[in-house]
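Q: what does this look like with zinc ion bound?
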Amino acid sequence: MARCSVCGRPAVICYRDSRRCLCAEHFLEHVESKVRRTVERYRLIRPGYRVLAAVSGGKDSATMLGVLSRLAGEIGFELIAFHIDLGIGEYSVKSRRAAVELARQLGVPLVVASVRELLGVGVPELARMARRPTCSVCGMVKRYLTNAAAVEAGADAVALGHNADDMAVYALKSFLTQDLEAIGKLGPKTETIPGLAVGRIRPLYTVTEKESFLYAYLRRLPFLHEECPHVSNRQTEIILKEEVARLEDRKPGLRLQLLSKLARRAGDYPRPPGEARACRVCGLIAWGEECSFCRLTRRTLGEPMGARAREYLRSLLEEAGLAPRRKDGA
Ligand code: AMP
Ligand code: ZN
Ligand code: ZN
């Protein structure tokens, strides 16, 4: 049996690139110190920040919230968890339950927004009405609502649960489709555009999928083990995930090398053409006259719902006693 390279107790994981093995205790410490180093190296969170952590109910957001809740006291920032009930049948019911249980266990305040409560339909119906793939509508709705919630909460950063495997897959996919602007957004953080968009941070940038799962499991954090029913095995992301795992197996360390280089070079990729501006309906980030959320809801529901969404999120935050702090102290 493999033994921990630090203390000699039975190991729970062995790393092929460094040839080290770690016991449960030293593994948990290792993940926490990796996240701490990412936060420091890339200046993801500063003391006094208010961080809105987007939690899906899955293992990655469980690990992210678990580690961030430990770092909050140490660094001195405020943490709010945010979950979106996407209205994807039983899957969303279970995801929501996991998110609620996770936040309760960690003692982090949670706000839950429901797409059906806001729009009258769930994401699958919305996608059908828009005649667009469910996952693309879902991604857009999640991005919009998370950003809107962060703006309404006066948050300084939105924390996302993407792990190192996810990021390597997105980088490869964007390269294969030559979506160079997308590669530029795949570093550990994106910048805040005041009033329009809150910067996004990825605390699990160097934490692999396996580590993320093992951390949530060993800390006994509640999470949903199921995948979304709309994910298909034919999706490019799923295929690339297997390929990245295969590459990593033959060349241990490759994935993290790619990401640390990408973190340095992300700024060299082209930015989207044109200027970011305020959506004329809701005032949040748009690349044309209207943001994609307002455009899609206008087309499908007959009314652009951005402004309504902001109002809805503001009322949820107020109910939870999380209305924004005034930065000027007034
Ligand atoms: P995904 O887009 O499903 O790969 O998820 C990427 C990240 O987005 C997750 O790690 C979460 O931080 C966030 N996220 C995904 N789904 C939700 C959700 N239903 N509610 C809140 N945040 C979510
Ligand atoms: Zn040990
Ligand atoms: Zn809008």
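The pocket of zinc ion (ligand 3) is lined by residues 279, 281-282, 284, 290-291, 293-294, 306 (CB under 6 Å). The beta strands are 13-15, 20-22, 50-54, 78-85, 110-114, 157-159, 200-201, 277-278, 285-286.
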